[in-house]
Specification:
The complex is a heterodimer of chains A (109) and B (114). With 109 residues, chain A is mainly beta. Chain A contains no helices and eleven strands. In chain A, strands 2, 4, 5, 9, 10 and 11 form a six-stranded mixed β-sheet that branches. Chain A is globular and about 40 Å long. In chain B, the strands form two sheets. In chain B, strands 2, 4, 5, 6, 9, 10 and 11 form a seven-stranded mixed β-sheet that branches. Chain B has a four-stranded antiparallel β-sheet with strand order 1-3-8-7, with no helix packed on it. Chain B is mainly beta. In chain B, strand 5 and strand 6 form a beta hairpin. Chain B starts with a strand and ends with a strand. Chain B is 0% helix and 48% strand. The chains are: A mainly beta (109), B mainly beta (114). Chain A binds chain B through residues 4, 30-31, 33, 41-45, 48, 50, 87, 89, 91, 95-102, and chain B through 40-45, 48, 58-59, 90, 97-100, 102-108.
């Protein structure tokens, strides 16, 4: 079966750095996405990785290792507005996104 | 309209009733999707369409039907609602199916079936 694993919840302090991990086992791999979802709102796109390595976009970076079936999202200089759920999703060989359950990130002052 | 709109925002429905969730996008995207999101589970794909006139089944299609008469609209119908269909429903669109295109989501419909 297909599976995406992420921690259910993480807590971090404002101004700090946090790393959210995602491991996957899917039928094929056409890329990995990270989305942000604030409570009661729609998911919004954060990043996309298809090749191994680190993609940096401002305070957010995303890393991929295809051989290990592993990705992480790195958030730097945390702000209170970063409190949200972070969803990892993999596009499989059928061109469908397989989604993790999401990691709820709580930021404390 | 900018992006994707969904209607209604929320709905309480008696079991056995028929319900259509509406979704409209103005980005001229070819591909559209319906997901359900339940607590503790990832988004699950119900149905999708890669272009007007064609639809396909996702991971959890039973009890749901869709149509794609034109590019902009992609309604989801529950023929006879059951309590297990209580969920938050998101419509999404992308330029193309697959090809790692970013999906853009509507604001969601919160459906409760009693």
């Amino acid at each position: 079966g297909q599976n995406i694993d992420q921690p259910t919840e993480m807590t971090a302090t404002e101004g700090a750095i946090v790393q959210i991990n995602c491991t996957y086992q899917t039928s094929g791999f056409n890329g990995l996405f990270w989305y942000q979802q604030h409570a009661g709102e729609a998911p919004t796109f954060l990043s996309y990785n298809v090749l191994d390595g680190l993609e940096e976009k401002g305070r957010f970076s995303s890393f991929l290792s295809r051989s290990k079936g592993y990705s992480y999202l790195l958030l730097k200089e945390l702000q209170m507005k970063d409190s949200a759920s972070y969803l990892c999703a993999v596009e499989d060989s059928n061109y469908q996104l397989i989604w993790g359950a999401g990691t709820k990130l709580i930021i404390k002052p | 309209i900018a992006g994707i709109t969904q209607a209604p925002t929320s709905q309480i429905l008696a079991a056995g009733r028929r319900m259509t969730l509406r979704c409209t996008q103005d980005m001229r995207h070819n591909a559209m999707y319906w997901y359900r999101q339940d607590l503790g589970l990832g988004l699950r794909l119900i149905h999708y369409s890669n272009t007007a006139g064609t639809t396909g089944k996702g991971e959890v299609p039973d009890g749901y039907s869709v149509s794609r008469a034109n590019t902009d609209d992609f309604p989801l119908t529950l023929a006879s609602a059951v309590p297990s269909q209580t969920s938050v429903y998101f419509c999404a669109s992308s330029d193309r199916l697959g090809s790692a295109d970013t999906q853009y989501f509507g604001p969601g419909t919160r459906l409760t079936v009693l």
